[in-house]
Amino acid sequence: MGRAHKLTAMGVERQKIAGLYGDGAGLWLKVTPGGSKSWILRYTSAGRERWAGLGPYPDVSLEEARESASELRKKIRSGIDPLEEKRQLAAEARAESAKAVTFDWCAHEYIKSHRAGWSNPKHAQQWENTLAQYASPKIGKLDVARIDTAHIVTVLTADDLWTKKTETASRLRGRIESVLAWATTRKFRAGENPARWKGHLDTLLPAPSKVAKERHHAALPWERMAEFMAALRKVEGSGARALEFAILTAGRSGEVRGATWSEFDLDAGVWTVPAARMKAGKEHRVPLTERALEILLGMRGDSFLDPDEIVFPGSKRSTPLSDMTMTAVIKRMHEADTKAGGAGFTDPKLGRVVTAHGFRSSFRDWASEATAYPHEMAEMALAHTIGDKAEKAYRRGDLFEKRRRMMADWAKHCDTPRKSGEVVPINRSTTAA
Q1: What mean pLDDT is reported for the chain?
Q2: Which of 147, 145, 146, 166 is nearest to 157 (CA)?
Q3: Quick check: 247 and 359 in contact, CB under 8 A?
Q4: Burial class (CB in 10 A: 0-12, 13-18, 19+), 239
Q5: For residue 387, what pLDDT band results from cuts at 50, 70 and 90?
Q6: Of 27, 99, 100, which is closest to residue 70 (Cα–Cα)?
Q7: Which residues contact 212 (CB under 8 A, 6 or more apart)?
Q8: Is the pLDDT of residue 422 over 70?
């Protein structure tokens, strides 16, 4: 015969008076003074009276409470204390969770272990920012061992990142791949890398080259350099002088903005950019023209110079210009020129206002189209890595004195417009042997 029960479904629903109401075999309905109801199983284990909660009513019906109580009684008869079992399972779950190694932790450790090997201090910050912005919200708290292809695709395609910010998404994919590879080497995960491109994600996502056209830096035609420089020299401020200096040296804006006085030998007319601040990780010597030296002397003034002091400071003497300062100078010049009825300063091919980096292209086009200086010499002036065997022959030296003459001609060109097709005459000794 079945077990005799004392409660009914209707009685449980209507019961409003606070107290304990038994159903038999240790199952009780608890009603609080506030009117809430819950199920409790009273049992004895190792000589101690125990009370195990079975859930609230009406979430757990009378019939469900009876079924749960029956299952727990079976465990009790076999020597298992339900409460102790529950506590043990919870402890094991917490321990397992504590053992989980998250993607965020792996990313942090990867960056920390590679930071010393990155020449540019901003490189680590870029890694941190990219992963924090795009990867962490989706997979940061996940156990790195459980991250799979679906997770990676979700990260890369969220908010149309792969199609709208393809370069950023591609860089992000590579960084995630590196972090997961590190985690695999450290035995925190196993198997193929779900962020790898070739033979994997390339079958799921369109190639970056197919969804994003290469975006060139807008550059001013070399024939208009004198016009631009004349307007630039009328602009006051550290930003304008830094831009002019960058143009005359064909330097990258970051190299100019981060320059300190210790890098300059004003008597010899040489700027030596240390390897740690160069994109290629190699020291770069830059010959200084007369106008470039005038700019430096103007920035120096008559005050005592701390060798570690920034040459082109920002709002504070101890901090460099922001990366947008030169852009702002160009934008104001463009707007002023167009307002005065001029054509402004745009790249005719791209239809965009020129950029600070674009003046390196202006210099390169001038060297190729208006001079007879060797290709390798112009590449050295730009601190580009020389690739093939013929070009590598020039690595025996840096052609410094010949580059000095080339940069002097560039400075002269920036003062005097030349007609298209006119070639700068140079002596035979100027060419690279």
Answers
A1: 87
A2: 166
A3: yes
A4: buried
A5: low
A6: 27
A7: 163, 166, 167
A8: no
Tokens 């199952």 belong to which residue?
A: 27
Distance CA(394)–CA(219), nearest Å, equals 28
Model confidence at 46: pLDDT above 90: no
Identify any residues that bridge with 273 across adjacent strands, giving them in sequence order: 284
How distant, in Å, are the alpha carbons of 45, 51, 81 from that of 48?
5, 10, 11
- In the chain the first and final C-alpha atoms are separated, in Å, by 110
Q: Residue 307 has which token pair?
A: 């060798």
Can you give the pLDDT at residue 89?
A: 83
Q: Give pLDDT tens digits for 224-252.
A: 999 999 999 999 999 999 999 999 999 99
Between 209 and 3, the more confident residue is 209
Residues 220 and 411 sit within 8 Å (Cβ to Cβ): no
Position 323, amino acid: D
Query: CA–CA distance from 43 to each of 31, 37, 51, 86 (Å)?
Result: 19, 20, 7, 15
